[in-house]
Amino acid sequence: MPRSFNNKLARWDALNSNLKPHVAELPNLQKGQEELERFLQRGFDLLARQDQYVGLARQVVADRLALEKEGDQLVEFLAAGLRHNFGPKSKKLHEFGLKPRNRGRKPKKAEPTDGGTTEPPVVVKSEAPPADEP
Q1: How many CB atoms lie within 10 A of CB 93?
Q2: 0.70 exceeded by the pTM?
């Protein structure tokens, strides 16, 4: 099961804290304990930098979303002005990347060719015989 970097640092820190008082009794582990202490310091520094970058990234996303919202409002305002000036059905709107409104309604469904005398087909339901009850 993968562990997060925070959990690793916590385990490393616990090992370092518990090993440090015993280094005098275990001189062969002193260099390793000192190196672990340097690793911990680098790890905590990296975590702090990561937290700063995460906060900065969230702020950038919030700023971008606000810009998008304001930009969309401005574009809608300008599009409404263009439709007002040229008319909502004007082909000139294409120059500005806008679609003119439809010129008419959708055509009605076609009438039957025989003058409407055709009856819809009759569907006959067949009843199944009742099941024998035991």
Answers
A1: 19
A2: no
Owning domain of residue 61? 5-96
What are the distances in angstroms from CA 51 to CA 3, 39, 56? 18, 18, 9
Contact 12, 40 (CB under 8 A): yes
Predicted local confidence at residue 1, as pLDDT: 42
Count the domains in the chain. Answer: 1
Domain-located, residue 13 = yes
Report d(CA 119, CA 97) in Å as an integer: 49
* Cα separations in angstroms, 84 against 46, 80, 90, 95, 100: 56, 6, 10, 15, 12
Instruction: Note whether 116 and 110 are within 8 A (CB).
Output: no
pLDDT of residue 108: 73
Query: Which tokens is 39 given?
Result: 């690793």
In a domain, 19, yes or no: yes
pLDDT in tens, 101-123: 876 666 677 666 666 666 666 76
